[in-house]
Amino acid sequence: MSFGILNNVSALNAEQALNGTQMSLTSVLQQLSTGQRINAGADDPAGLAIANGLSANIAALNQSIANANDGVGNLQVADGALSQVTSLLNTAVSIATEAATGTVSSAQRDSLNAEYTQIMAEIDRIGSTTTYNGTSVFTATTTSIYLTDAVSNSTIGSTVGVLSSTGLALNGTTLAGTDGTGAQAALTKIDAAIQTVANDRGTIGAAVNRLQDAASVMGTQVQNLTAAENNIMAADIPSAISRLSNLSVLSQTGMAALAQANSQQQAILKLLG
Prior knowledge:
Elements: H1 9-34, H2 45-100, H3 106-129, E1 131-132, E2 135-136, E3 143-148, E4 153-158, H4 181-233, H5 237-272
Antiparallel strand pairs: 1-2, 3-4
Helix pairs in contact: 1-5, 2-3, 2-4
């Protein structure tokens, strides 16, 4: 092996090894500071691509869960309003039953009919003013809840329907009259209206259950996808700490080796003495 001053090959080798150690040390320190194994595309290009795809799936599913919950909220508002309508109709049953008996005078039936008319007006008011997020709840339009995982998508539709005294076939009914004939006819229609409202609430309840089931399934998907993303992106802290200790030692020994390689050149000066 020649001994010259043109190039210090030993120092170059030591410097290259030290640079590699320092780069690895920087990467490990970044992993420990961020908690992520992948902090740049160069760390794991394929892993980063997969993780980003999973992240998109998770974001879409979380928003779809929110969409489903909004749909549930809309239906629950409708169900709450129909519950109040049922209470009003039950009151109407009592009033009509009283008006139907022969011991009630015409004047009393007129008073009972006035109360009955207010009940019909309240049902119409509930149907026209009940809203969710600024949109009318009781419409004939189907509400479509959009669900997706950023790959495939679907919709769940629900139709609440229009709510009004006319829609419940109560228009034209009256409790007034000289006898209870009108009240008896009204009572039959009120009973039918109560059944209609009960059927509507059952349909709404089934739609609520479906949306809640869909949200539950998507919640499980989010958990599984988050776990998969974490397996790809998360740093293995014990392993990183072990590497940090190893690289710290290598860095120190590398610096010592570089210093030793540089000092060898000084030995040539002794030959000139």
